[in-house]
Amino acid sequence: MPVDQINGLQITLPQITTYAPFDSVKHYEDYIARLKQIPATLDQAIAVMRQGELDGLMPPKYLLEKTVDQTQKIAEPAGDKNPFTAPATKFPMQLQPRIENVCTMRW
């Protein structure tokens, strides 16, 4: 299974902001491109989980319930409280006007 209480997209996707560099316009463009890939990545994980369910390869229910809670804690915060928006709150001053323009154009 691609998701459990220790590993999975609910853990790895928000961590992108902790290991990806954010010190150039290109880095921010790359991050936006990664964010746009998340829906397809989630669809792939869902397909694998559905197949696992059909094959009877499911973790215990109580462990899967923990992943739901983890996911909600990541998805619910709005604005600068959401882990995916962390890079937008830390623009390097010398790049700020250019990055804000790029981010506005991309969304």
Fold and architecture overview:
This protein is an all-alpha fold. It has 4 helices and no strands. The chain has helices at 9-19, 25-54, 61-75, 96-106. The protein is elongated and about 55 Å long. It starts with 8 loop residues before the first helix and ends with a helix. 7% of the residues are buried. The mean pLDDT is 87.
Summed up:
By secondary structure, this protein is mainly α. The protein has 4 helices and no strands.
Report the average pLDDT across residues: 87
**How many runs of DSSP E, i.e. beta strands?**
0
Rg calculated over all Cα atoms: 17 Å
Tell me the distance between the termini: 32 Å
Shape: elongated
Count of alpha and pi helical runs = 4
Unreliable spans are: none
Strand content: under 5%
> How can the largest sheet be summarized?
none
Helix content: 55-70%
Structural class based on helices, strands and sheet pairing? mainly alpha
H/E element sequence: HHHH
